[in-house]
Amino acid sequence: MARYTGPKDRLSRREGFDLFGKGAKLTRLGVPPGVHGPKGVRGSSQYGRQLREKQKVKRLYGVLEKQFRNYVEEALKTRGNTGERLIQILESRLDNVVFRLGFAPTRPASRQLVSHRHVLVDGKKVNIPSYRVKPGEIISLTPKGLAVPSVKAMFEIKEFKLPNWLERKAAVGKVVSEFYSR
């Protein structure tokens, strides 16, 4: 599938917070992008607020419009809360699980780890970032993936908080249960 390759600063400025984990490298976060950005933001309608939230979720998980629409349609077909089901679907993507396990510093970095074939799911190489991880599957990194400097740096962080639906021991993680429950 495709992914957004344009300026990431612009997206973060549009949403008003750091979407891609750039931290201090992010410039002018308080000013919206575009030629009219510094003049201020006008009040938005209910539709505008809903659109901003949808765009924020899309950009946070690195999904383009068509794929996001497919996820929404799938969430609408299930019983229960559609919004929670949509978040469950997005959280179960392999690139997001690699990020949540603490193998990569950001979601784009975890997507790159997956697409460069550094991630094993139940012992098999998987290079599809949108692969849906099921409960009970074991996610690990290849020896070459463990040698990546940003991955090494992530393993040195001791106070990393893991979601309750994941377990991790060293460079091996396991999906314990259904994803994202409030």
Structure in words:
The chain is 41% helix and 9% strand. The chain has eight helices and five strands. It has a five-stranded antiparallel sheet. Helix 3 packs across helix 4. The longest helix has 16 residues, at 46-61. It starts with 7 loop residues before the first helix and ends in a 7-residue tail after the last strand.
Short recap of the structure:
This protein is α+β, with helices and mostly antiparallel strands and 182 residues long. It has helices spanning 8-15, 46-61, 65-77, 82-91, 94-100, 107-115, 143-146, 149-156; strands at residues 119-121, 124-125, 138-141, 166-169, 172-175. A five-stranded antiparallel beta sheet has the order 2-1-3-5-4.
Give the key terms.
single chain, 182 residues, five-stranded antiparallel β-sheet, 5 strands, Ribosomal Protein S4 Delta 41, Chain A, domain 1, alpha+beta, 2 domains, Structural Genomics Hypothetical 15.5 Kd Protein In mrcA-pckA Intergenic Region, Chain A, 41% helix
Write the SSE topology.
Elements lengths: L7 H8 L30 H16 L3 H13 L4 H10 L2 H7 L6 H9 L3 E3 L2 E2 L12 E4 L1 H4 L2 H8 L9 E4 L2 E4 L7
Antiparallel strand pairs: 1-2, 1-3, 3-5, 4-5
Assign an overall shape.
Answer: globular
CATH H level, superfamily name of the largest domain: Ribosomal protein S4/S9, N-terminal domain
CATH class of the largest domain: Mainly Alpha
The total of beta strands comes to 5
Distance between the termini: 30 Å
Helix-strand sequence: HHHHHHEEEHHEE
Q: What summary fits the major beta sheet?
A: 5 strands, antiparallel
- Mean pLDDT comes to 87
CATH architecture of the largest domain: Orthogonal Bundle
Share in helix: 40-55%
Q: Reading side by side through the largest sheet, how are the strands ordered?
A: 2-1-3-5-4
Number of structural units classed as domains: 2
Enter the CATH topology name of the largest domain.
Answer: Ribosomal Protein S4 Delta 41, Chain A, domain 1
Given the helix and strand composition, which structural class is it?
Answer: alpha+beta
Radius of gyration: 18 Å
The number of helices is 8
Poorly predicted ranges: none
What fraction of residues sit in β-strands? 5-15%
